[in-house]
Each structure stands twice: as C-alpha cells, then as structure tokens.
Write a structure and sequence with these properties.
It is built from four helices and no strands. By secondary structure, it is mainly alpha-helical. The radius of gyration is 29 Å and the shape is elongated. The N and C termini lie far apart (95 Å).
Length: 77
C-alpha cells in the first residue's frame, strides 16, 4: 500500500512538471499556433534586413554624436 502511494506521488509530480513545461512552451505562442492551424500563412520574417537598417541607424547616430572642433570645419573649407 505504501509503495502504491509513493509511486502515485512520484508519477503525479512528474506529470505536473511535464504539464507545466508544455504549458510554458505553448502559452506564449498560442495565437500563432491557432493562426497556423486555421490555415493563415505566416508573415515573412527578414531579420537580416532589419539588422542592416538598425546598424545603419546606430552608425548615423554615432557619427552625428561625435563632436567636431571648429578647426576641422575651417580646415575642410
């Protein structure tokens, strides 16, 4: 009798952990899963083009943030 109780506790705990793991994996993506299950195509994802645009923005901001002494402006003219 004691072994059956311990076994049921062990398997119940394992089932709870497995269920929690599945839930935490699926819950953030449930809308996407339902859209795909209903036959709606997934929108295109282009991470490299977005990365290039972000890098350009960062470069421009860094360039515009650097201070230029007045002597450099006169020398260029």
């Amino acid at each position: 009798m004691l072994m059956q109780v311990l076994a049921s506790f062990a398997f119940s705990g394992a089932a709870a952990i497995a269920g929690g793991t599945i839930y935490t994996s699926v819950a953030p993506q449930w809308q996407r899963i339902l859209r795909l299950a209903s036959g709606q195509p997934e929108t295109a994802f282009a991470p490299l083009s977005q990365l290039v645009q972000a890098e350009r923005r960062i470069a421009v901001r860094r360039w515009s943030a650097t201070s230029r002494p007045a002597a450099d402006w006169r020398a260029a003219a």
